[in-house]
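Appendix B, example 12.
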Amino acid sequence: MRAAGRSVRTRLRNRIAASDPGLLRLTAGLRTVGAIALTLAVLALLRVDVHLLVAGAMAAMVATFAIREKQLGAQAVTLALGLPVALASVSLGAVLNARLAGDVFFVVLIFCAVYGRRFGDRGTALGLIGFQVYFVFLFVGATVSSLPALCGAIALAFCSSALLRFAVVPATPTRVLMRLRLAFRARLAQLVSAQLDLLDAGPDEMDKALEAVREGTARLHETAMMIQGRLEEGTPDESAARLVQRRIADAEIAAERLGLLLLTARSAERADTLTLHLPGAPAPAVGRLAVPDEATATLRRDLQALRTLVLRAGSGDSGTALAHVRNRLLGYRDEENLPSAPAAVQDVFRGIGESARSVLGLRIALDGPQDESDDTPATARSREELDAEDAAIDGGEEAAQEEQTGLRRPTTRAAVQVTVGSTLAIVGGELLSTQRWYWAVLTCWIVFLNTASTGEILVKGYRRLLGTVFGVVAGIVLAGLVGQHTWTAFALVLVLIFAMFYTAPLSYTLMSFFVTAMLGLLYTLLHTYSLEVLVLRVEETALGAACGVVAAALVLPVQTDRRTNELLGTVLDRLADVTEAAVGQLSGGPADELLDRSRDLDQALADLRAATQPLTHPVTPLRARRNTARYVVALLETCAYHARTLAATAELLPTHPSIAADPRLRGAAARTVRNIETIAARVADEHAAARVVTGPSIASLLGSDAGTPRYGRITDRVLRHLERLDEAVVGLARPLGVPVAGPRG
């Protein structure tokens, strides 16, 4: 009974960890709600006016969500600096309450708040606090006479936020990283489950099963990137950080490759890598596995065993049964006990062995040395390889990046744009309402947060307006249900705030919905609720979004095409960099920081994916352009997968007994690198005359058999990835309008 209870708790923990990596959304929601509840409780004991209750609650929310640093010490400094900034903002607002003077101060405050982003997380946080607290002053209609009480409520809110942040719901970098590692394991297990469903899916279920594998692969990659961003603060030294980085990368690549091998085994011919990366791409034609039922049952059993190995890798369970499962799966790497089956199916078993090896490496890196008493020779060899790789880890230095200056600096440009847009919003907002014009300014401000092009601002404005419209309907319903029950309204406000923070990273529309519904309750508490007020909220939101788009389009504009082209050029440059460095090392060149380069490529691709959202949004009228953008991003993800795999293989070169440098690889891959550079040059200058060149397969350039490579030969695997990368790069040239020429004579 007790074991069953532990099993249920473990499954629940894994499910929560996978849905909310690092529990970052849960922590943010609980911390914010807790700070607001504590502030309200203290203010209620002091029997203050409801206006101060609302002001204290909003100030507590601002003081909590504005702080983004990862180290607790840095958070404490920013929070301490934020309090005088908040008090100065609200005090100046009260003193300069005259219409013109107040508007001028608000515009100056907006410029300074946005410009402060150039100083990193602390500058961003202090700017947010200054702006949002001034907004609190406007919302509650404070006056000079009420200023002392208002400042007291704000100070209390900051103290409550500090107590929740540092004592009640602390989140140290080490603890967050530990939770992210748990989430990585949980999502890895979910991906293996999706691959198991792919194995058993019938022809009618194949598209759904493949989509689940795509989603699982993307979510695993997302968690790996989150871990990458927390390694420096969450590990004791650089060597430990690089060890975790390598093991996470190994596990991610092995899992992604296992999915491709399964898809190939189910397909009539070798599966195209693009199938795994292009959303909505149809699954290849499949049939029943042409293997004995015994081999199919063994494959299903081993995938289930791999999932068990992943889930129990971090549980401290190292019993004999688990060791037996691990040893059996690792044996496939050395061709031990391979079932009688076609080569493609045997490749899947070998892929399971590689995944088991990556799980072993992940467990050693995260949990320390393990019991080796039950090791088989195959497991011992895997441990020796891992130990040799770990010993070869060395820190590297990051290259300095050129810093833009003047109006070319994104923060300066954004500050000017937001200032102009906010000025327009103030003028237009006052024409709609002399009392609640600030909603237009708030919307204009928000649509510029975390956006860098006119298209992104347009999409964000649309989402905010959509969420606001539905939120108004919800606000009407909730206000009618609550009536004048103050504490019931505050309880619902807390629920809505938690929902707002929990859904914010997932859907901006949902977040806007919860914000607007919450505001309907706050208006009820302030006795200013009416249907007209909520309709005005929609009008001001639409006006603010329009002002933001106009400012972005006319003042120092960054067009979506220009932004995506710049990011596309960055992705291509980093792709060429990773490919050339990996092939150079595989050819016998000096060792390089390949995993760092690979993660730089992944980050550049993530930036491009975000920037193309205006082009791929469902409401865009340019359907052909949307399909092209999705296709290009999917091709780049395919290229990144093969480049990452080459880099990971190259990093094994100094220590892996079965990998030897092959000088011929450099010449064979030179065409691919040149083609990537040619496409990058064409993206940067549409008049560039260079062409992408095709030619014989890379395997034939090395005098190898162009047929299906054997999995056990590392050189053949490298050739396979180089060939797929070469094909994807040539495929990338066509949608980007780069001419393709035949082989040079």
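The chain has a mean pLDDT of 83. Residues 32 and 61 are 6 Å apart (CA to CA).
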